[in-house]
Amino acid sequence: MTKSGRLATAALAAILLVATPGAEANAAQCGNGPGGFENWKREFSEEARAKGIGQAALGALMQTNYASATIAADRSQHSFSLSLGAFMAKRGASTIVSRGRSLKQSQAALFASIQQRYGVPPGPLIAIWGMETGFGSQRGNQNMLSSIATLAYDCRRPDFFTDQLYAALKLIDRGAISAGQRGSMHGEVGQTQFMPKNILNYGTGNLDVAANALNSTANFLRAHGWRAGAGYQPGEPNFAAIEAWNAAQVYQKAIAIMGRQIDGGDE
After folding, report:
1. Model confidence at 221: pLDDT above 80
2. Are 221 and 124 in contact (CB under 8 A)?
3. Fewer CB atoms inside 10 A, N or C side of the chain?
4. Pick from 58, 145, 134, 50: which is nearest to 100 by CA?
């Protein structure tokens, strides 16, 4: 073949590669509004079926609704841009610490068993519990599957939430959660607000039960490098596990500070 012929053949192959729909091109397409959601669900359902998701979960997926409130919340997470002091004031850190110290005493046996098993002291667990749901009082009332399906469809972070959606569907197939599970705006559920992938990997029982949620949170922290007896303030060994729990720096620092105060550190 002549040089010009080889070039022409290569060019044609490149055109065909772009034009031929492969696995990626056939993937359900994201969108930026409710208009394409029903069609996306049908396409995604076929992909999920091919990956082994069962009929119960697929049926639940097809019953989901586009969660406009979730999209609005996803676009307005302003508190994470506050200063540390302003963030802690907005989230009620002093109240969390005060009640947290009381819970540490009243639930001493529970926290002792968790620390013995996972090496995590009460302070950071209680701080997370208080920060996430006000000790279980604000767990959210959104349909978890609708929230996650909407975010998997939405073009802002589809890869992350597609993984979460597959995890949620697996949990429904296993009977670990129901199709009607309620949670917060981004699909977090339970007393300490677990996403579906973390439920699969670290969950221990019904996370709407405080003891299960706290054990699961300690399990998560240990799996992300928590070492019994090591410090958990910024720059100390266990701070990385807190960083793994939530990516926002003000959140991480707030948990470390409140945890230290609950555990008996500075006022």
Report:
1. yes
2. yes
3. C
4. 134
Whether 189 contacts 199, CB under 8 Å: yes
pLDDT over threshold 90, residue 18: no
For residues 256 and 247, what is the distance between their CA atoms, to the nearest angstrom?
14
What are the tens digits of pLDDT across the range 130-146?
A: 999 999 999 999 999 99
Residue 107 near residue 179 (C-beta atoms within 8 A): no
> Rounded mean pLDDT of 5-24?
42
The pLDDT of residue 265 is 65
- Residue located via tokens 């091919």: 50
Residues 6+ apart with CB under 8 A from 24: none
| Angle made by CA atoms 260, 113, 249, in degrees to the nearest 5 | 30
Per the listing, tokens 């090496």 go with: 119
Average pLDDT over residues 74-81: 80
**Phi and psi angles of residue 69, each rounded to the nearest 5 degrees, phi first:** -65, -35
**For the chain, how many residues are written?**
267
CA–CA dist 232, 115 (Å, integer): 14
